[in-house]
Design goal:
GO terms for molecular function: heme binding; iron ion binding; monooxygenase activity; oxidoreductase activity, acting on paired donors, with incorporation or reduction of molecular oxygen. Keywords: Heme, Iron, Membrane, Metal-binding, Monooxygenase, Oxidoreductase, Transmembrane, Transmembrane helix. Heme binds at residue 155. It comes from Aegilops tauschii subsp. strangulata. The chain is an alpha+beta fold. The protein has a single domain, classed as Cytochrome p450 (Orthogonal Bundle). It has helices at 3-32, 34-48, 56-59, 63-75, 108-112, 158-175; strands at residues 85-86, 91-93, 96-98, 103-104, 176-179, 195-196, 202-203, 210-213. The strands form four sheets. Strands 1-4 form a two-stranded antiparallel sheet. Strands 2-3 form a two-stranded antiparallel ribbon. Strands 5-8 form a two-stranded antiparallel ribbon. Helix 1 (3-32) crosses helix 4. The longest helix has 30 residues, at 3-32. The termini are far apart.
């Protein structure tokens, strides 16, 4: 096999695809929740404060942006089924016997929407993460949502993916005001957030929005 081709394929499937899918879900949720978008834009524009553009130096102060992305990852894990694992020895989990060499598939999509764990589990509520000290990453001990996996087999690209998403989204939200397209009769339409299942979970319909340039 062509190992270089396989590595490039992994980069596109595990990095590029999941990153832009998460950004698309974030913008779709913000369009459908204009109060959240306005609050986030106010935070970003106050942090930039006349600098002209968003830089990595601003990201550390954007707490609400991190909360918005974490909430998006909770509701819309880019890989709904994490890469399969295999047990090394016989074990028992929640009363079930799991033999050694059993292939285990983790449903990250269901974990993030578990009503036993999350209040208003199906709703987009970034405020739940504003004062939450946990990080995005795969190395933490918070298993309520695992979009990057967890433990030693967690996603190694989290340290690159997260700043990339934060910087791109902050730039889009700083420079533009965003609105849904107008429906018949001139009323603003609500975006359809139906999911299209695959290796990654995407919007079923294409994301069409209206961007209006903004300047301080």
């Amino acid at each position: 096999p062509c190992w270089a081709c396989m590595i490039i394929q992994d980069m596109f499937a595990a990095a590029t695809d999941t990153t832009y899918t998460t950004m698309e879900w974030t913008m779709a949720e913000l369009i459908n929740h204009p109060r959240v978008m306005q609050k986030l834009q106010d935070e970003i524009r106050a942090a930039v404060n006349g600098a002209g553009h968003v830089t990595e130096d601003h990201l550390g102060t954007l707490r609400y942006l991190r909360a918005v992305i974490r909430e998006t990852l909770r509701l819309h894990a880019p890989l709904p089924l994490l890469l399969p694992r295999e047990t090394l020895e016989d074990t028992e989990l929640l009363g079930y016997r799991v033999p050694a060499r059993t292939r285990v598939v983790i449903n990250a999509w269901a974990i993030g929407r578990d009503p036993a764990t999350w209040e208003r589990a199906e709703e987009f509520v970034p405020e739940r993460f504003v004062d939450d000290p946990a990080e995005y990453g795969a190395g933490h001990d918070d298993f309520r949502a695992v979009p990057f996996g967890a433990g030693r087999r967690g996603c190694p690209g989290v340290g690159f993916a997260v700043p990339s998403m934060e910087l791109a989204l902050a730039g889009l939200l700083y420079h533009f005001d965003w609105e849904p397209p107008l429906a018949a009769g001139g009323a603003a339409s609500k975006l359809d957030l139906s999911e299209l299942f695959g290796i990654s979970v995407r919007l079923k319909t294409a994301l069409h929005v209206v961007a209006k340039p903004w300047s301080p």
